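step 3/5: co-fold with calcium ion
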Amino acid sequence: MVLTAALGAIALGGASIAAMGPAVSGPVTVLDAAVRGEQVVINPPPATPTARYRVTVNVNWTSATHPATLPSNAHFSAPVVAVHGAPGVMFSVGGASSPGVEAMAERGSTGMLVAELNSNTQVISVQTGAGVPAPAVGSRTFDVTVLQLDHRISLVSMLAPSPDWFVGFDLATFVDDQWIDSVTMPLGNYDAGTDSGSGFTSGNADTNPAQPIAGPRDAAFAAAVAEGAFGTVTITKIG
Ligand SMILES: [Ca+2]
Ligand SMILES: [Ca+2]
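step 4/5: write tokens
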């Protein structure tokens, strides 16, 4: 962490320094150095080898949030959560869907994807949760342990019904040699590239050869995304 001489008004020998930015509080020696215009570097303590995070997914896909595009019986399939090291171990934009991701994105199946992840040496833990039935408002919480080298958390859940559309994320928890405290962001919207149906309730149309995982390819998905996010994820350090 670097503090520059951006101080609020500070009395100094009867004088004061005009406010130049947010107030800084800290040990007198640090403030004195900052007052002198020096760059002050505060070295945080080394990060712990492991950390615990709470992953909370809040979803909202109803006639209230998506009045123009909501299909009948709109719901989320059982989510799959994994902890791993490199990005893209479960899925990545521009990469190919694994058979497990295809099954998740097209049918909401978790078994094949969980088996793939459990047999992947880059994955240190796998969890599943209950889907969110229509009307699809709710939250799902997962507590995970991460390591400095295996600090990414991924999650996927199918938008159902849909051809091969899913929501998810792949987030890092260890950044610049420190554990992040908390982050909240919208769920990502993805097309698995494995079914060519163009609408939420289109019949099965296997994409052969498969296309890479991408954002929305079809107008119906793009229109739904334009109406609003399907949900958010919050990752908070709990230990
Ligand atoms: Ca598709
Ligand atoms: Ca397919």
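step 5/5: annotate
Helices lie at 28-35, 99-107, 111-118, 219-227.
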